[in-house]
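Input chain follows. Return structure tokens only.
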Amino acid sequence: MIAMQKWKKYMCFQWIKTWPGGSGYPIIIHQYYCLPGNDCENQVKNKWAVEVSGISFNGFRGTGMIVTSALIIWKALMCITGSESPVVVVLSGSMEPGFKRGDILFLHMSKDPIRAGEIVVFNVDGREIPIVHRVIKVHERQDTGEVDVLTKGDNNYGDDRLLYAQGQQWLHRHHIMGRAVGFLPYVGWVTIIMTEKPIIKYILIGALGLLVITSKD
């Protein structure tokens, strides 16, 4: 059942605000209808208004489906890889020549012990952005079985203790987000450019939104 409410009058048209009732989609649709007794010279306007409403509705629905699908895929990757962030972008040149700025890394986090030589992504208290560096030293505690990890960038002179939180000498397992198991070169530059130049990000988002809303499929 469709409920209707008079909104306002404009020339020979009446602007009707409609919305699906019951279990319908909770979205407002605007349509134009010819008023009784008026000679509507162009009936196409009515059809155009309904068509625009349908395009807008389908656009919002399409955008919602895209966002929902992306979230489902991301959650699935988290479950499969065991990592809270299955894909990361290299933001600096500290791991050159192996990994360059803009490379995308694919992460996996298993229960296997962390070994020297592995490339890991880790979080440090007080830093918002994760760091991608190589494990250079592992110290296993005999009494507790816990593992202390020291990291270093391949292109850096010293280890990462200056990057750790104040007074912290080692990383522990809860700091590690995942091990690097694969990469794609340069693909992450899109993310870097949008981060460093927000105007480009807004233009791309606006263009994508406009494309989705105006698409009839």
